[in-house]
Automatic annotation (TrEMBL), chain A:
CDD domains: STAS_RsbR_RsbS_like. The keyword Cytoplasm does not apply. InterPro entries: Bact_StressResp_Reg, RsbRD_N_dom, STAS_dom, STAS_dom_sf. It comes from the Bacteria. The keyword Phosphoprotein applies. This is RsbT co-antagonist protein RsbR. It holds the Pfam family STAS. It comes from Povalibacter uvarum. Residues 160-274 form the STAS domain.
UniProtKB/TrEMBL annotation, chain B:
Coiled coil: none annotated. This is Serine/threonine-protein kinase RsbT. GO terms for molecular function: protein serine/threonine kinase activity. Keywords: Kinase, Transferase. It is an enzyme of class 2 (transferase). It comes from the Bacteria. InterPro entries: HATPase_C_sf, HATPase_dom. It comes from Povalibacter uvarum. Its EC number is 2.7.11.1. Residues 39-132 form the Histidine kinase/HSP90-like ATPase domain.
Length: 293, 136
């Protein structure tokens, strides 16, 4: 199967410089170097590398999906991946390969030594080869975009769970999202570390933003509550919505911990336990005029 | 085993990300079937338990989701399938607190209490199929 593609390989090796020039011109016309994400020199280097590998590959094989084409596919994958990360559109990314078509066709058409049949064959082969490579570019692009999305989701997940200090001795952990991923471990460890660092007496775990509490979630909560207790802090759970409360009863999970409807209620309780009270200022006018002055 | 009905959606269970996806899909389908918030939460939680068992004990598998609509009842039915080791003693597995892993041992019994319909078919060495349904 690994038959050398003589017509195309001849065409590319005899006209490499011309093909590169035409190709780059096409790319520039299509605006490939605009937007400042890639400069003309970089584009030129990518094009030159591509053509020199292509020349070598065509001398060995015409099977685009075969092993001989592996280095070329690798190069394209690198280019495609970096463009996906830089935020290129699929069109802009595919342009790199597809714009080589015209340059290659033109080079084939200029071959006076090819018979009509050879011309047709070389054009056809150039076309199917570049189509296949273009699709490969899109595959890699798509996969890279998905990887970017997954990574962003992870980052958001970690960002969205800070431990906040509400008062001296009172910490709060507002949980948002699903609680059964690896991140739960991280989040819970963060809370325990904050308890140690601040010597907190109370940790309020607010689960208003947790859509489902199943046995695994409950187990994570139970472990955290137990560990916090060992470190001298009491946990208060807040934000258990009615439907979650009912579900927990059916599941048979008991957290054995004080729970409050809202984070505000839990905070009030913690303050009370610390012998603090919140009172309305007696002379609001005085405070106001001070602020104004 | 009976073939899945035509309107069923089959989802793979191979990772804990799939379990998250299953909860989202079940939520969407339960809302579409007209279940209220409490019923939705119940079937989602049951699905979460069974999907995780399928993953942890069954070595992965599938969940098929269909609508229940027979004039009287509207809701959804979920079928979890795996080709894992099977459950030798179903009564024991259902008992609260029984676990062969590191769990609370509440998932299976809890899922049963959260649903209107619950059935386990399991053959040791062949696999496990658990069917649940929730309707209003
Ligand atoms: N699909 C399955 N295949 C084989 N064994 C299973 C399967 N599902 C459950 N089991 C067995 O039944 C036991 C009880 O399951 P159950 O879901 O009640 O508890 P758990 O998964 O161990 O803990 P929890 O669900 O509370 O986190 C499991 O420990 C396991 O041995
Ligand atoms: Mg379980």
């Amino acid at each position: 199967m690994a038959r050398a593609n003589t017509l195309l390989s001849q065409t590319v090796s005899d006209n490499e410089a011309v093909i590169l020039d035409e190709w780059m011109q096409r790319l520039r016309q299509a605006g490939a170097d605009q937007g400042g994400r890639i400069n003309a020199a970089e584009l030129q280097t990518q094009g030159r590398d591509f053509l020199s590998i292509l020349k070598r590959t065509l001398g060995e094989s015409s099977d685009v999906t075969g092993a001989a084409f592996e280095p070329l596919r690798e190069l394209l994958a690198d280019i495609s991946r970096s463009r996906a990360i830089q935020g290129y559109s699929p069109r802009e990314t595919a342009l790199f390969v597809f714009s080589l078509k015209q340059a290659l066709f033109a080079a084939v058409a200029r071959r006076k030594d090819f018979s009509a049949e050879q011309l047709a064959q070389a054009t056809w082969e150039a076309s199917t080869m570049l189509d296949e490579l273009g699709l490969h570019t899109m595959d890699v692009y798509q996969r890279s975009r998905e990887e970017v999305i997954v990574r962003q989701q992870r980052e958001i997940a970690e960002l969205s769970t800070p431990v906040v200090k509400l008062w001296d001795g009172i910490l709060a952990l507002p949980l948002i999202g699903t609680l059964d991923s690896e991140r739960t471990q991280v989040v819970m460890e963060n809370l325990l570390q904050s308890i140690v660092d601040s010597g907190a007496d109370f940790a309020i775990i607010d689960i208003t933003g947790v859509p489902t509490v199943d046995t695994l979630t409950a187990q994570h909560l139970l472990k955290t509550i137990a560990a916090a207790r060992l470190m001298g802090a009491d946990c208060i759970i807040s934000g258990i919505r009615p439907q979650i409360a009912q579900t927990m009863v059916h599941l048979g999970v008991e957290l054995n911990v004080i729970s409050k409807a809202t984070l505000a209620d839990a905070f009030a309780l913690a303050l009370k336990r610390l012998n603090k009270t919140v009172v309305t200022a007696k002379t609001p006018q005085a405070a106001d005029s001070k602020a104004a002055g | 085993m009976a073939p899945a009905p035509a309107d069923s959606t089959v989802l793979q269970i191979r990772s804990s990300d799939d379990v998250v996806l299953i909860r989202q899909q079940v939520r969407a389908r339960a809302a579409e079937a007209g279940l209220g918030l409490v019923d939705q939460t119940k079937i989602i939680t049951a699905a979460s338990e069974l999907a995780r068992n399928t993953l942890d004990y069954g070595g992965g598998g599938t969940m098929a989701m269909t609508m229940v609509n027979d004039g009287l009842r509207r809701g959804i039915r979920l079928v979890f399938d795996d080709k894992g080791p099977g459950i030798a003693d179903i009564q024991q597995a259902l008992r609260d607190g029984y676990t062969t892993g590191n769990g609370l041992g509440l998932g299976l019994g809890g899922a049963k209490r959260l649903c209107n319909e619950f059935a386990i078919e399991s053959t040791v060495g062949v696999g496990t199929r658990i069917t649940i349904a929730r309707w209003k």
